[in-house]
Design a protein that fits this description.
The complex is a heterodimer of chains A (104) and B (246).
Chain A: H1 3-23, H2 32-38, H3 41-55, H4 68-83, H5 87-103
Chain B: H1 4-15, H2 19-35, H3 40-49, H4 53-65, H5 69-80, H6 83-94, H7 99-107, H8 111-122, H9 130-156, H10 167-177, H11 184-199, H12 208-225
Chain lengths: 104, 246
């Protein structure tokens, strides 16, 4: 499956989801169980991406102070929690990563 | 007196503050796509075709790792599933519209467009022209996303590879995640998904993300069903107004 076909596939599934209940004829409502489950998609997906990036740098498990990405990510979490901003954690985390990498 | 024109302009105006969050995200996507080795044309084309920030950023990481196309499409499906809530929520308001309007507005139904538009629909006042507000908000976000993608692609081609820019993916998602962690069930979903992601990291085809997401969703629903838990809020998910572009 080539990259272009993949991109088109991503577009098709995304559009299908967005159109699903707008385009549905009549009064269609989601089952309550599905609504309950969808609420957890963002935290589950985001964490499932973040955690391996922090504790599996280069593919091997590293939960130590020598892991620059873990420390930088921890700082970014603190900044995100305090500022509620999306961009400040990125800036703080990248600066921390560069400083820690330079110190090693 | 609201007219199509005044509604459209109000939609544009109320969306402007959100652009401060969308623009850096678009830049980051463009930079990541190029540093992942994606051809510039494909990186730029993904923004109008897939039009969903988080899914696009995840796709750059997967492309770099050589994840097969069908798994990338499946991942985009899971990541964007939350938009079904928005579709369900907007559906009744858009029912009187002609089909081409529905098709167009569904395409523009991102997190941010939903967040500003649903608030507008819920306010008192004649709803006759409110779809023009949706169009104004949606097109403003769309244009911002396309322009910042192109800027990111241009910048990304000039940045040194050893800056570790791929790490901005995790950092951006940290900024999106932390404000969402507001109750016990959501926290359980996040912790379970994080642990499962590490445990399932060795799965073939990088299916660990899908498995971990499923484990996290199940954990959140279990904790929510425990006695003493608050009843689930309906419609918009926690922090949906902040969760990425699209």
């Amino acid at each position: 499956m080539g990259l272009w076909l993949t991109i088109i596939g991503m577009g098709v599934v995304t559009y299908a989801i967005r159109l699903s209940l707008i385009g549905a004829l009549g009064r269609v409502t989601l089952p309550p169980l599905l609504i309950r489950g969808l609420r957890f998609v963002p935290p589950a997906v985001l964490t499932a991406i973040i955690v391996p990036e922090l504790v599996l740098p280069g593919g091997t498990f590293d939960f130590s102070l020598g892991n620059a990405r873990l420390l930088a990510g921890g700082l970014a979490m603190l900044v995100a929690w305090r500022t509620k901003s999306v961009i400040f954690p990125v800036i703080a985390g990248m600066v921390a990563l560069w400083v820690l990498t330079a110190l090693h | 007196m609201s007219t199509p024109r005044s509604e459209f302009l109000a939609g544009v105006r109320l969306t402007l503050p959100l652009l401060a969050g969308v623009a850096p995200f678009g830049l980051i996507y463009g930079v990541l796509a190029i540093s992942a080795g994606m051809p510039a044309a494909a990186a730029i084309a993904m923004s109008p075709i897939a039009f969903g920030g988080s899914a696009q950023i995840i796709a750059t990481g997967q492309f770099k790792l050589g994840v097969p196309g069908p798994v990338m499409v499946l991942t985009a499906f899971v990541v964007n599933l939350r938009h079904m809530l928005y579709s369900a929520s907007m559906g009744p308001y858009l029912r009187p519209l002609a089909r081409p309007w529905k098709w167009l507005l569904a395409y523009l139904l991102t997190d941010e467009a939903y967040a500003v538009t649903i608030v507008h629909y819920q306010q008192p006042g004649p709803a006759e022209h409110k779809h023009w507000f949706f169009l104004g908000a949606g097109l403003t976000l769309w244009a911002t996303w396309q322009i910042t993608t192109i800027a990111g692609v241009i910048v990304g081609g000039r940045l040194p590879a050893n800056w570790g820019l791929d790490f901005t993916l995790a950092l951006t998602f940290i900024g999106l995640l932390l404000p969402v962690l507001r109750d016990r069930a959501v926290l359980a979903a996040a912790v379970a998904a994080g642990l499962a992601a590490v445990a399932a990291a060795g799965l073939p085809l990088k299916l660990g993300l899908i498995v971990a997401a499923a484990v996290g969703i199940a954990a959140g629903m279990l904790v929510e069903a425990l006695p003493g838990a608050k009843p689930p809020p309906d419609a918009a998910p926690e922090g949906s107004d902040r969760w990425a572009s699209g």
